Every structure is written in C-alpha cells, then in structure tokens.
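User: Just a sanity check before I run the rest of the batch. Below are the structure tokens for the first item. I only need the designed sequence back.
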C-alpha cells in the first residue's frame, strides 16, 4: 500500500478507537477474517478469531454499559487509559513495514488523534449523562456505534476520505473541546451545588418524614397533638418508639429494623430545632396539618462558595385515625397515592400542597429549585 492509503488507515483506526475501540477492532477483524479487505502493516492480526472473540465480548459489555449514564461516565474515565494507547499502537502497527522512526511518529500522532476523539466523546457524553432523562444518552450511544462501524467500513474502502474526515474532526476538536470543557464545568458545578443543596435541605425532609413513612403518635387525641408528639420523638432521637405507632397497614410495608436503621442514619446527619404548625384540615378519619420544620446539618456543606447548615421544609402531615388515636404519616407522593387508593375521595376532600424546601444563605431563606 502507498503511504497515503496507509496513513488514512492508521489515522482512521486511531480516531475510531478513541470513540469505540472494541467496535473498531471487531469490524476490522471480521472484514479481514472473511478476506473482504487488505489491511496495511500488521493490522491484519485483528483477523485472528481469538482477537475477534475478545473484541466482540468487550463490545457487548460496552454496548450495555454506555447506555446507563452513571456507568457510562465511569466507563469513559477508565477507558481514557485504554482507548488512547490502543489508538496509538494500532496507528503504529499500520506502519509496521516502514522505518522505525516513521512508526514512532505514527504512534505519537495516532495517540493524539485518539485522544481528540475520546476527549470529545467523553466530554459530550458526560454533559448528556447529567440530564435526568436517559433518552439523550442512549441516542448518543447508538449514534456512536453506527458512526464507528460505518466509518470503519468506509475507511477500508476509501482511506483517503476517512483521512480528510479525521483532519477536519481534529481541527474541529481543537476549536470545540475548550468550549465543551467550559460548558461541562458549568454543568458539573451546578450538579455539585444541587447535590450539596439537596443534602443541606432535602435531607431534613427525609429525616423528618423518613423518606417513605415516618410516623408517630402517643395516644394523641387530636391531629395537632399527634404531630407535636411525632416531632418530639424525632427531635429527642427516640427512634425505636416510632415504629410502635405506625399505622397497621404501614407496618406491613416496612420492618422494625429497616425503619429504625433508616431514621438513625438520617439522625446522624442533622439536628432538629423547632416546628411551626399552621392550617389544620380534618374530615372523618383523615386530617392534614401544615407544618414548617427547621433543622441544622451536623456538618455544614459548601454551596456556591458559602457554607450551608440551616434548612427548613414547609410540608403537610397526613394523619389517619385508628381507634381513638391519630397516626402521623409523611406527605410524600407515595403516601398520597396510598390514601387515594384507600379512599378515592381523599384528594377531593383536602387541599394538598407539595413540600417546599428552603435553605438559609446570606441571612435569607432561599427556595430549592
């Protein structure tokens, strides 16, 4: 093969390796194995069945892994140390029949090309992985698979075309990667801030409501008395007593140890301070009490350059009457759905609101968006 054809194959292989190494090797290996193409230098070694088998297995794992956002980000991070060196080696392998100095140059350039494609891919996917919906991540993954296989086939039949594409892409990557990284930094900073904010205020709600159904009552004869008793048990960390006052149907959904361990873990993160009680709605065996609960994290968290330790949640406590006693149940969506199933008129009879989380920053209460 002439030098331009070899260069196109070498740089094309390095570039595709940065996107999807295993799909690249698998595609080239199958084309070589069935004598559909001639590969330059020692690249023909990818046509061995054992290499095809290993590449196929690893591609199957990657095909699943990069469809899951969290797994994909970790996978790309690890493969920074696999795709780039592999791209450099494959580029040098294509020049096996050339002078050693040429092979070294091919390895260096091939590594740079693989780094440009891998870096662009990883940064783009990481930005997509921060989105709450999985569609964009899956779509990007499928596009990458299609581009890798399609470009590998194009490369072996038209190496000069793929060389032009690689040159254009590298120029684009040099221009785009700094912008992608800046955008990604903003996304990561925002995500970190939201995580810290979530830990600073939402955990208070979780601690009060124990995520699913934190409940308490000490023979309370009124909804307000039940809510106060509930808060005092949580505030004084009498977690073992809480389970005994769960509504019977709720005890069927969680064991004593699961409930107690969950509340104790949350109690290790925050300290409850006080609770304000607002509007009370009561009808039949149900009641809804508006509350505002204040608390502090045991360890302050940093958000937007400032330590956040104080939070509050405005939430409604849903109560159910069993015998003479009122039992308090957190007003999360799952509990509402539970009551809606138990009594279709429940939602109609009460004016329900969603919890509102706030944290104190610079002396002012800021809403959690």
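Assistant: Here's the designed sequence for the first item:
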């Amino acid at each position: 093969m002439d030098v331009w054809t070899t260069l196109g194959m070498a740089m094309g292989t390095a570039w595709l390796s940065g996107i999807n190494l295993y799909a690249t090797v698998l595609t080239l290996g199958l084309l070589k194995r069935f004598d559909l193409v001639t590969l330059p230098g020692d690249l023909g070694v990818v046509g061995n069945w054992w290499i095809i088998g290993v590449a196929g297995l690893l591609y199957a794992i990657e095909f699943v892994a990069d469809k899951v956002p969290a797994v994909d980000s970790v996978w790309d991070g690890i493969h920074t140390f696999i795709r780039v060196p592999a791209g450099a080696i494959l580029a040098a392998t294509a020049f096996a029949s050339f002078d050693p100095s040429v092979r070294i140059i091919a390895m260096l350039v091939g590594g740079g090309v693989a780094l440009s494609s891998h870096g662009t891919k990883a940064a783009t996917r990481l930005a997509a992985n921060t989105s709450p919906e999985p569609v964009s991540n899956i779509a990007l993954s499928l596009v990458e698979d299609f581009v890798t296989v399609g470009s590998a086939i194009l490369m072996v039949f038209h190496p000069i075309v793929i060389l032009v594409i690689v040159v254009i892409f590298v120029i684009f990557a040099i221009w785009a990667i700094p912008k992608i990284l800046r955008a990604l930094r903003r996304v990561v900073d925002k995500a970190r801030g939201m995580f810290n904010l979530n830990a600073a205020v939402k955990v208070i709600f979780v601690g009060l409501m124990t995520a699913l159904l934190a409940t308490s009552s000490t023979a309370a004869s009124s909804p307000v008395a039940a809510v106060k008793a509930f808060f005092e048990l949580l505030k004084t960390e009498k977690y073992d007593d809480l389970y005994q006052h769960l509504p019977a149907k709720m005890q069927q959904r969680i064991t004593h140890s699961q409930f107690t361990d969950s509340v104790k873990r949350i109690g290790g993160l925050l300290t409850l301070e006080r609770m304000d009680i607002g509007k009370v709605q009561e009808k039949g065996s149900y009641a809804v009490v508006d509350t505002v609960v204040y608390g502090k994290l045991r360890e302050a968290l940093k958000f937007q350059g400032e330590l956040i330790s104080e939070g509050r949640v405005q939430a409604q406590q849903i109560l159910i009457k069993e015998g003479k006693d009122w039992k308090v149940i957190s007003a999360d969506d799952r509990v509402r759905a539970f009551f809606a199933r138990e009594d279709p008129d429940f939602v109609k009879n009460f004016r329900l609101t969603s919890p509102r989380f706030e944290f104190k920053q610079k002396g002012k209460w800021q809403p959690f968006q």
